[in-house]
Amino acid sequence: MTSRRVVVVGGGITGLTTAYRLTTLDPSLEITVLESLNRLGGMIRTGKFAGSSVDEGADSFLARIPEATDLCRELGIDNRLISPSVDGATVYSRGKIRRIPDELALGVPTSFFQLARSGIVSLGGAIRAGMDLFKPDDWPGQDESVGDLISRRLGAEVAQRLVDPLIGGINASDTYELSARMATPTIAHVARRNRSLIRGMRSFHDRTRHVSGQPAFHSFAGGMSVLVDRLEAALDTVDLKMSAPAHSISAQGDTYTVHSDAGDISAESIVLACPASTSASSLAGISPNAAELLGRITYASVAVTTVSLRSTDIAHPLEGAGLLIPRPEGMLTTAVTWGHLKWPHWSEDPDRAVLRISSGRHGDDRAMQLDDDELVEALSAELGDLLEISGPILEWKVTRWPNSLPQYPPGHGDRVTAIEATLRRDAPRVFVTGASYRGVGIPACIDQANDAAQAVIDAIGPRE
Ligand SMILES: Cc1cc2nc3c(=O)[nH]c(=O)nc-3n(C[C@H](O)[C@H](O)[C@H](O)COP(=O)(O)OP(=O)(O)OC[C@H]3O[C@@H](n4cnc5c(N)ncnc54)[C@H](O)[C@@H]3O)c2cc1C
Questions:
Q1: Per-residue pLDDT, 462
Q2: Structure confidence at residue 70 as a pLDDT band (50, 70, 90)
Q3: Alpha carbon nearest to ligand 1 atom 4, residue
Q4: What is the per-residue pLDDT for 249?
Q5: Residue of the nearest CA to atom 50 in ligand 1?
Q6: Nearest alpha carbon to residue 226 among 9, 41, 443, 69
């Protein structure tokens, strides 16, 4: 019997889960994972900061979407899951830090009174949001942006000051350039099925209330790398090659060859679980059309700056898990997590506050143009004023994620469908999967990885 090899390109959560799922679906497969860096995990990375394990990329995953929790259960690490110690968040709007109302469904306000009381939008903005209850149906009949959807139903103030920081922050996107169908499918669905978005989201909220006692997010006391380390341990039959970037793919008959720094590796099937831009160059020789479509997917760059300072040097009360900064404020900071409050294991010392400051969004690369010292200085100046900080930053660390967060403009779903259809025609046993396509969150990446592994098995057929 000839060996049946599958090559997975990319050792992020998508690539590792794809490889793991392949081992469970068909233990006879020979699997190689190629990772360009000298570490696994991609955008999941836990590092040491002030003596504690602190996440420098993703710090948690959504519990509501089951795929990540299911994988943790399967890997036997569900008993190590933890959830944030504090709930809710604040937003800086109209000159003050304000608590985000509790009555939100997936980031959409469902209570006019709470919205008005929060002060996040002006009274006029709250009244405009309430008009949703009476406005006729104005669905435009096509994939629209999240910003356009929220603006037409609830007004521009709610869109820019509340929904953009909450939802746009996830992809570091401008919600006016973010496909509602791909990034917020439930909101898009509810908006289509109901004349009033507030009523529709309220009824969605009531229907899903039974899960509201459960935590919204999960992580691990040792940081998100616990998941990566456990996956790596489960891949003992897989050939994991690090510092081994893949460059291109060629085809001879039914066999593909991946040309990489680890040499040329022939396989029956290939899964590209790396950014679309990398997949585009790898595929240029065997599917120029797919490569061209892949090359059109754009990315935002973000920087995560972790700082520690004495808790008593922060005069402003730190409510909830952190602070969001709406785009119209024009600040470099996009969000701050009160790390020591959200994840108490981030600071062993009760007198030390650990803040994780995000900067950079699509269309705003100011943070990437500053060097680390300049960035820390600029962020300290912004937060010094907002949080009334009186003491020095004791330690800091900047982690940059250039071209990391894929952007899903309206029409992204059709583009992904076209990429998949083109590949089926040109290279039927080569698959693309991961954050660039059908969801950036970790559960969505795991879901796509499971689908990619099943697609490989369907394409190469059962063992003879
Ligand atoms: C700062 C930040 C915070 C985030 N926070 C959260 C969060 O809290 N919760 C959440 O759910 N999501 C979060 N995300 C998003 C989430 O982490 C990512 O979408 C997800 O981890 C992407 O996984 P992936 O495997 O698809 O891609 P990646 O993690 O990008 O992995 C792709 C891998 O491919 C490798 N690669 C690239 N080119 C090649 C090549 N030529 N050959 C071989 N290998 C190659 C890369 O080195 C990388 O390891 C965050 C993202 C960032 C940047």
A1: 72
A2: very high
A3: 58
A4: 98
A5: 58
A6: 41
